[in-house]
Specification:
This protein is of the alpha/beta class and 408 residues long. Helices cover 27% and strands 24% of the residues. Strand 4, helix 5 and strand 5 form a beta-alpha-beta unit.
Amino acid sequence: MGSENRGESEKTSDGSICGHDSLHRLLRAKLVPQVFQEVSRLLLGLNCGKALEELALPESATSLSSKHGFDLQGFSFEADKEQLREPRIVRVGLIQNSIAVPTTAGFAEQRQGIFEKLQPIVEAAGASGVNILCLQEAWTMPFAFCTREKRWCEFAETVDGESTKFLQEFARRFNMVIISPILERDVAHGETIWNTAVIIGNHGNIIGKHRKNHIPRVGDFNESTYYMEGNTGHPVFETAYGKIAVNICYGRHHPLNWLAFGLNGAEIVFNPSATVGELSEPMWPIEARNAAIANSYYVASINRVGTEVFPSPFTSGDGRPQHADFGHFYGSSYFSAPDASCTPSLARNMDGLIISDMDLNLCRQLKDKWGFRMTARYDLYHDLLRRYTQPDFEPQVVSDPLLHKEAS
């Protein structure tokens, strides 16, 4: 999650924006085509000098979207044609979803309801030929980490637990890598709980895991009640479809976190999240896109959707009266490319699957164009960070010698 509060600015209670389910669709409806095209250019950028093309998705996927009522969108990122390398096209999918049954239901019913809700969406991804699929943060449960009630820890499971087994079947069936962010129970270390992303290979094998590096203590999001900062570093997972990494939720607010995944060679970084409120929504379209630009990789941003009401009211320690929900998770999942282009986002008020073709050659092309890796001064940053971590650190500030001189 990000720096957020519960207050929301949308004018309708269903999570839409003035009756439209996304900013892009609102603009399309309200602007004449020529103006809409120019506004889209400014908001979404251009990929290799032109607007992103929409993908033609198979009827089997679109029919699942219609039948089960989830948003389905697809776009294609291109790279310049090279003489010595063939295109490296990877099809990536992101799923955002609301919970399936009320939080007052039994935990087994809640989890099974989410499994059943996600099955047709995963099926649509498989039918569309998705190579890498990522689910939202803590997808198997309501985002109960505001409540500070320990009973929600029951949703924690081992890396090879029920949710992994559920997804392994799809990974094998569709030859698809799946990123599954769960609440992990580390049995080997005294039942410690982590916020973890499990990487399932396209043969159904478990490639590895990454634990959330940065834990928020902002507003309702006091997540350190349940888990603390992860201990897996910044791993990049080499898969059949490219080198991927997972920057879980609040880590998107930390530029060095993004940088570290890039230094380890990531080509696509996934950011499964759960975020609400006025404080984070203006940041949502910016941070991941900036990370893609600065680090010359693709970023895939996922946010859950809907309002989750809990049985027991809770407080945030910020002076507001007790309340029983975070506010509205505004969805809006999208992709960003290293050339500053990005897709429109999914709806902010309904489940969804967004799919993108990515030519991974674009990553190196942008490194060559901008030279960020070559022109960075890692030696200077290293020296500053080394000194900053010492107790006797003194900032490098040069004061005007006349600043504190008494007026004559």
